[in-house]
Structure formats: structure tokens, C-alpha cells
Amino acid sequence: MSESFRRMLRALPDFPAELPDFDPETAPRNPAELFRQWLNEALAAGVPQPNACSLATADAEGRPSARMLILKDIDGDGWHFATSRESRKGQELTANPHAALNFFWQPLGRQVRVAGDVVELSAEASAADWRDRPGADGSTNPAWQLYALRPRELEFWQARHDRRHIRHRYGPQTDGAGAAQPS
Fold first, then answer.
1. Structural domains of the chain, count
2. 146 Cβ contact list (under 8 Å, min separation 6)
3. 8 Å CB contact between 85 and 130
4. To 5 degrees, how large is the angle CA 118–CA 78–CA 67?
5. How confident is the model at residue 1 (pLDDT cuts 50, 70, 90)?
6. CA dihedral sign, ordered 181, 120, 88, 58
7. 107 lies in a domain?
8. Chain centroid, CA 152 distance in Å
9. Rg (CA), the chain
10. Which domain holds residue 50?
11. pLDDT tens readout for residues 146-161
């Protein structure tokens, strides 16, 4: 049974026949600008929920966990996401304030990885995010926390059918907007 499962997995299709071109030489110096371009291209291609990403955190002992969530914004504070401080991810971020985000847009053969330190944003920003959630009923949630991941490393990955995938990396952060320099 395990051999047939392995063969079935190996036979699954990976990317569509047509993939977009990506020339790292023409990429903007600011990774947030490139991310916005790729997100807009994902929207134009009909990718459902292109703002969904995997958030990876680790507990105090370094044991990782990952889950899907929604990117809220990118600004001078970093890449925003939110959760309850009482949730597993909230507790892990308190114990170990480092995380990684991963966006995957299969129809375009693209993914974006963002890793860095995580900070809590203000109580006012957190309350505003809670109020802006779909289905908000006007109640408050003091455990709700808006976080910002401050990138130390970003990688834009473009699949190619010849398996010579393109990786475009940005290195150490140079300002609060995530304007890291290419490495």
C-alpha cells in the first residue's frame, strides 16, 4: 500500500502548463513592492484568498507549529497578522517572538517566504482590527492582538518546468517598511 501511495503522490501534477516569467534583475529594491505586484497578479489570475498564508511559530523549546491565517497589512511596522494572545500561536509568540510566513499561489507557481522578529502592535490597533473583522458585533476582545512580523529575510520563488526554479532573496532589513537589500 505504501508503494502505491508513493507512486500516486509522485504522479500528481505540480504546476500549470503556463507559468509567468520572473526576472530578478527587474525586481524592485523594496520586497513589499514586489509582494504587492505578485499579490495583484494572483488576484488577476483568480487565485482564491491570495492573502492567506502559513504562519510558523515555535514554542520556548523550539518545537515548531504552523497554521493558515490572513495577512492584514504591510506597513512601516511590518507584515501584520492577528490572533488571540491565549491561542497556541499567541502563547508561542510570547515565549519565542520569531516567526515565518509563507504564501503559495499554485496557479502561478509562486511562493513568498518572510521570516523575522514579531512585535505586538498597540492595544488601539488590535481593538480596531477586532472591530473590522467580518461579522463583528461591536463587542470587545481584550485577548485579541495585532502583531507585526519585521522581516529579516524574504524569498520570492518562481517555479519553472525545467526545475531551475528562480529564487530572489532579500537580506537584512534596512528600514521599518521591510525594504531589505537583495542578497
1. 1
2. 72, 80, 81, 82, 120, 121, 122, 125, 126, 129
3. no
4. 55
5. low
6. positive
7. yes
8. 13
9. 18
10. 26-170
11. 999 999 999 999 999 9
